[in-house]
Amino acid sequence: xxxxxxxxxxxxxxxxxxxxxxxxxxxxxxxxxxxxxxxxxxxxxxxxxxxxxxxxxxxxxxxxxxxxxxxxxxxxxxxxxxxxxxxxxxxxxxxxxxxxxxxxxxxxxxxxxxxxxxxxxxxxxxxxxxxxxxxxxxxxxxxxxxxxxxxxxxxxxxxxxxxxxxxxxxxxxxxxxxxxxxxxxxxxxxxxxxxxxxxxxxxxxxxxxxxxxxxxxxxxxxxxxxxxxxxxxxxxxxxxxxxxxxxxxxxxxxxxxxxxxxxxxxxxxxxxxxxxxxxxxxxxxxxxxxxxxxxxxxxxxxxxxxxxxxxxxxxx
Length: 316
Ligand code: NDP
Description:
The chain has seven helices and 19 strands. The protein is of the alpha/beta class and 316 residues long. The protein folds into two domains: 3-119 and 246-313, 3-Layer(bba) Sandwich (FAD/NAD(P)-binding domain); 122-242, FAD/NAD(P)-binding domain, CATH 3.50.50.60. 45% of the residues are buried.
C-alpha cells in the first residue's frame, strides 16, 4: 500500500519551505519533496545567487545558500519530513491524489502544494557556466546592488519586459547599462520600450548575440556577434544579467492544472488555489511578475494556511 499523507509539498525554495514551516506548525507533518535534479537544485534559485541583500531580517545580507539552509533546518525542527527526490508524475483527477517519485515509490495525499519554481533560461555557453555568479546573474533585483557592480558598465541580455525592467533597475548602480538584443525590435511592451529608449544611461545594442563571456576569475567583458553582418566585437562590462525568460517547472503535471500560455499555474485571485480543489500553488511556478524570494515565501505561507483550512472544511 502506498504511504498516505495529509499534505505533500513539492519544492524546497522559499515558497516550498515556508509552506513546510507553516503546515508543520499546524501539526500536519508535511512531506516535502525537495527535488533532486529536475528544475534546478534543491533549495531553488537562491542556491546559485551570491549575497541576498533584500530578504528582510538580515541587515548585513545573507548568502543565498545559508538562507536556504536556515529555512530547511527550521522546517525540519518544526516537524517537516524532507525527501531529496523528484516527483516524476502525479494523478490528481481522483482522490486521494497519487504521486510517483523518481525511485518509483508511490505516495497518496489529501492535499498538494506545488512550489516547484521556475528555471531562469541561461545561454548555453561554457564560458557562461564558468563565470556564473562571478559577474553573471539572472536577477538584477537580487544581485544588482552588489558592490562589484557599483559604478561599472553593465549589460543585460534580452529584449522582453524583464530585460528592460532589469536594465532600468541597474541604472541605479551601474555607470551605464547596455541592453543586448538579438533582433532590431524589442519584444517588451510599448511603455517599457519607451523607458529603455529614453533612458540616458541605457544604450541598446541591436542585432547582437553573446558568443562568449570573457574573464578568468571574474567577468570582464563579452564577445558579441552581429546577427546581420556576422561581425564580432568585444564589450567591456563588469556584470552581465541574462533576462531571456523563465520556464516554470510544471512538466511533471502533464497538463492536469490550468496554466497560462507560458506554463505558469493559474491561481484564483488573491489566493493560491488552483483549478483542482485541494491543490495549491506557491512561488515562481505561479508568479511571472515578482519572482522574489520574499514574495515566494509569502505565497508559501498563503498556500499553507489555505491548505490547512481546506483540509478542515473537507473533513480530512
Ligand atoms: P520574454 O519571453 O517576454 O522575453 C524574452 C526575451 O529574451 C526576448 O526578447 C527574446 O528574444 C530573448 N531571448 C530568448 N532566448 C534568447 C537567447 N537564447 N538569446 C538571446 N535572446 C534570447 O520573457 P520576459 O522574462 O521578459 O517576460 C516574461 C513574461 O513576464 C512576459 O509576459 C512579460 O510581459 C512579463 N513581465 C512583465 C513585467 C512587467 O509588467 N513589469 C516585468 C517582467 C516580465 P526575441 O524577442 O527575439 O524572442
